[in-house]
Amino acid sequence: MTLAITIGILVAGGVYLMLQRGMVRIVLGLLLVGHGANLLLMSSGGVFRRELPLLQFGWGPQTADPLPQAFVLTAIVIAFSIAIYMLTLAASGSDDDTEEAS
Amino acid sequence: MNTALLPLFVAVPLLAAGLLLFVRGPLWLRRALLLGPSAAAMLAGSWLIWLTRDGTVFAHNVGLWQDGIAIPFVADVFSALMLWTTALLALVCSMFAIATGDDRQTYFSPLVLVLTSGVSGALLTGDIFNMFVFIEVMLLPSYGLLAMMGVLGRLKAGRIYVTVNLLTSTIFLAGVALVYAAAGTVHLGELAGAAKESPMVAVGMGVIILALAIKAAVVPIHGWLARTYPFTSPAITALFSGLHTKVAIYAIYRLYALVFDGDAKFLWIGLVAFTLTMAIGVMGAVGEGTTRSILVFHMISQIGYILLGVALFTELGLMAGIFYLIHHMIVKASLFLSTGAIEHTYGTGELDRLGGIAKREPLLGLIFMGAALSLAGLPPFSGFVAKLSLVIAAVDDAQWTVAAVMIAVSLITLMSMLKIWGGVFWGKEPEPEGSDQAPVTAAGNGAVDTLTRPKIKMSLIVPGLILTATTLCIGLGAHVLLELSAQAAANLLDTSTYVEAVLGR
């Protein structure tokens, strides 16, 4: 439940930021939505399973599923690199990060 | 065939890209490294088509890891056809980029190679999460290429492009999470038919298909395409048009056939969305004034046609759709390259500022006309076979409205091809312009004085010529590709060979 609420808040905040005019806010919004997606991916493995996923400790119903965690790691790296690139794009070129209403 | 060779489609371009970062040496060596992998991939693709033409499916677990842990690579005739076309386009667009001098930018060649590597990976992979990763591998270099090459306004276009694609990828990722939560796997072999049985999986896959539809620019989420593609260099536009949206289309075909097992109860959504895509895309082109923006709107319209194949989900429909997909990739790139040759030489793609090129450049005129007629669907080009079989498939399925819209849209397509033809190739050459009308959209790396009007270089014409000749050949010898498409369609309708190949090791 905590996770569901957190994902909801992250996505809501992200969508709000993405609807703003400035590029930097859009980047921040995308980051928030990205974290929401990552948490969703995390929870898809079942958050109640907390034991170490190492064969020497045995494999039971409480053993955590390592696959979604690997997915999340990959996704974080990709989102991170694109976020850096987007910030570069926001810094170069004309400045559309203004408060003025059009 | 030794299936361990399949990952080479991904590895070779990546390796060449890495080498290109170190090789500062002679230009011919860099060019050989750019063209070599694509040429090799084309040969390998032909071989793969030959091996898979009877419906065989090859599967390989990368690194020989066991199922469920390994990255599965799967090739059937559909992916083989796509791989071949991808390689052809990469080769031809690279030739064009060499002719325009785009490749003199240090990072141009490595980025293009990484892009083709990502495309091949996305076409071959047999699990949804790796599809996400390979689509990212394909997109990351495109972000660079879009912002690096091209005309004024490319940074703004780059911002839109990256934002849309990152959001779409996030949606895709959320879909992967939902599918994993519902089915406990992302392996396509294990997911086969899962969405038909479990509504939960269907919801997750629905989210993934939505993300793919955004990437394919299906109406009503097509606006980003028209606002980004015209702003990079012509070679890159041609490459993007041939590869990016088409990977998404391929994935929609594959996933709908495999995971939904062609479930008939969702097909009406596709029929409505793709018919609208056809109609609205072509209408968007009416108001545009430059060659590339007209062509980009046509692309949206054609995407509707291609995807109708999967929305009909009959054997005939799938076959027509796959045939259309291959035909479209080639023809669209040809159009972008021939108008790109003009844009590069004359420094503008605006219809008002061009004219009379058919007289000056008869060969280029022929190339453009061939490709344009093929796009509109006139014999003897491949577009005729593609459209005809698609219309027959729609009529066969009693989708009269869809068939009628298809024919009407072809007519409008022909009209707006005539608009480019009339504006660029026929008519008078415009008067030399005064300095007060400084070229606004002049290509950054090829702007020339419109007064002098140089001849278009042969090396700029040849790439378009190759592609138009290909569409003519496909049109004249249509039965070869039709048979291959029919086999690909059969593989999509009966997924058991695919599933067996992926799981059976």
From TrEMBL, chain A:
<keyword id="KW-1133">Transmembrane helix</keyword>
<dbReference type="InterPro" id="IPR039428">
    <property type="entry name" value="NUOK/Mnh_C1-like"/>
</dbReference>
<keyword id="KW-0812">Transmembrane</keyword>
<keyword id="KW-0472">Membrane</keyword>
<feature type="transmembrane region" description="Helical">
    <location>
        <begin position="68"/>
        <end position="87"/>
    </location>
</feature>
<dbReference type="InterPro" id="IPR050601">
    <property type="entry name" value="CPA3_antiporter_subunitC"/>
</dbReference>
<comment type="similarity">
    <text>Belongs to the CPA3 antiporters (TC 2.A.63) subunit C family.</text>
</comment>
<feature type="transmembrane region" description="Helical">
    <location>
        <begin position="26"/>
        <end position="48"/>
    </location>
</feature>
<protein>
    <submittedName>
        <fullName>Cation:proton antiporter subunit C</fullName>
    </submittedName>
</protein>
<dbReference type="Pfam" id="PF00420">
    <property type="entry name" value="Oxidored_q2"/>
</dbReference>
<keyword id="KW-1003">Cell membrane</keyword>
UniProtKB/TrEMBL annotation, chain B:
<feature type="domain" description="NADH:quinone oxidoreductase/Mrp antiporter transmembrane">
    <location>
        <begin position="126"/>
        <end position="412"/>
    </location>
</feature>
<feature type="transmembrane region" description="Helical">
    <location>
        <begin position="160"/>
        <end position="183"/>
    </location>
</feature>
<dbReference type="Pfam" id="PF00361">
    <property type="entry name" value="Proton_antipo_M"/>
</dbReference>
<dbReference type="InterPro" id="IPR003918">
    <property type="entry name" value="NADH_UbQ_OxRdtase"/>
</dbReference>
<keyword id="KW-1133">Transmembrane helix</keyword>
<feature type="transmembrane region" description="Helical">
    <location>
        <begin position="266"/>
        <end position="287"/>
    </location>
</feature>
<keyword id="KW-0812">Transmembrane</keyword>
<feature type="transmembrane region" description="Helical">
    <location>
        <begin position="6"/>
        <end position="23"/>
    </location>
</feature>
<feature type="transmembrane region" description="Helical">
    <location>
        <begin position="294"/>
        <end position="313"/>
    </location>
</feature>
<feature type="transmembrane region" description="Helical">
    <location>
        <begin position="319"/>
        <end position="342"/>
    </location>
</feature>
<feature type="transmembrane region" description="Helical">
    <location>
        <begin position="238"/>
        <end position="260"/>
    </location>
</feature>
<dbReference type="InterPro" id="IPR001750">
    <property type="entry name" value="ND/Mrp_TM"/>
</dbReference>
<feature type="transmembrane region" description="Helical">
    <location>
        <begin position="460"/>
        <end position="482"/>
    </location>
</feature>
<feature type="transmembrane region" description="Helical">
    <location>
        <begin position="398"/>
        <end position="418"/>
    </location>
</feature>
<feature type="transmembrane region" description="Helical">
    <location>
        <begin position="131"/>
        <end position="153"/>
    </location>
</feature>
<dbReference type="InterPro" id="IPR050586">
    <property type="entry name" value="CPA3_Na-H_Antiporter_D"/>
</dbReference>
<keyword id="KW-0472">Membrane</keyword>
<feature type="transmembrane region" description="Helical">
    <location>
        <begin position="32"/>
        <end position="50"/>
    </location>
</feature>
<comment type="similarity">
    <text>Belongs to the CPA3 antiporters (TC 2.A.63) subunit D family.</text>
</comment>
<feature type="transmembrane region" description="Helical">
    <location>
        <begin position="363"/>
        <end position="386"/>
    </location>
</feature>
<keyword id="KW-1003">Cell membrane</keyword>
<feature type="transmembrane region" description="Helical">
    <location>
        <begin position="203"/>
        <end position="226"/>
    </location>
</feature>
